[in-house]
Amino acid sequence: MSKKRKPKPREYPVTYISTVDRYSADYSFSVGSGHDYDPHPYSEHFSIQIDGVVKITTSAKVKLGTPVKIHIMGNVREVDEKFKPNGVGFMDSMKGYLNAIISLPPLSVHYLLSLLKSGKVEVVDLFGSEMKHRHSTIRSFRATTAFEWEDWKDEPPVKT
Q1: In this predicted model, what pLDDT tens digit does every residue of 40-51 receive, in sequence order?
Q2: Residues in contact with 158: Cβ distance below 8 Å, sequence separation at least 6, in sequence order
Q3: How many CA atoms lie within 13 A of 151 on its CB side?
Q4: CA 66 to CA 146: how far, in whole Å?
Q5: How far apart are CA 83 and CA 94, in angstroms?
Q6: Which of 6, 74, 121, 143 could form a disulfide with 106 if both were Cys (CB 3.0 to 4.6 A apart)?
Q7: From CA 91, how far away is CA 71, in angstroms rounded?
Q8: C-alpha closest to that of 13 among 91, 130, 92
Q9: Strand 67-75 to 22-31 pairing
Q10: 113 CB-near residues (< 8 Å, 6+ apart)
């Protein structure tokens, strides 16, 4: 007689809300890679780095006040229609800070940069899985100019 397996514990989504303390942006454009395996005539790359601090989280494994570096990339490349992504990016827990890499469509990166330049973006919200082996999958990225802090004040306290 075989033993019954315990059901896998349900994973609840986690929110990581960070302030926007500073940002930087990079852009590059190149013509031809010179490699036969790369058929693209040009390559265009946009990236933004947002530095901040975790102010609100529903994670039991991330402390409030943890520094965050969010790297947002937009690449102009053809997308394989058969590819089904798990999320928009991932986040790793490094030595004393969180490091997230988010991939967005290039037009979204331009729009996000204009929001950041306006100075009105209060927070960025990363929504995904709980940290497991110092790694989390990010399913949603949001930058907002009108964050409702009151909506979060009744959240149960998180162990810090």
Answers
A1: 677 778 899 999
A2: 57, 58, 59, 60, 64
A3: 5
A4: 22
A5: 29
A6: 74
A7: 10
A8: 130
A9: unpaired
A10: 25, 46, 48
Rounded-to-integer distance, Cα 96 and Cα 54, Å: 12
DSSP 146: S
pLDDT value at position 37?
60
Amino acid 22: pLDDT: 95
Ranges of residues in the chain whose predicted pLDDT is under 70:
1-2, 9-10, 32-40, 75-80, 153-160
Which residue is associated with the tokens 């986690």? 14
Asked if 129 contacts 14 with a C-beta cutoff of 8 angstroms, the reply is: yes
pLDDT at 146: 85
115 class by beta-carbon count within 10 Å (0-12 exposed, 13-18 middle, 19+ buried): middle
- Count Cβ neighbours within 10 Å for each residue of 44-80 and write b for 16 or more, e otherwise: ebbbbebbbebbbbbbeebeeebebbbebbbeeeeee
Which H/E stretch holds residue 71?
strand 67-75
- For the chain, give every domain's residue range: 18-30+41-150
Handedness of CA 74, 80, 81, 84 (dihedral sign): negative
Structure tokens at 16: 């990581």
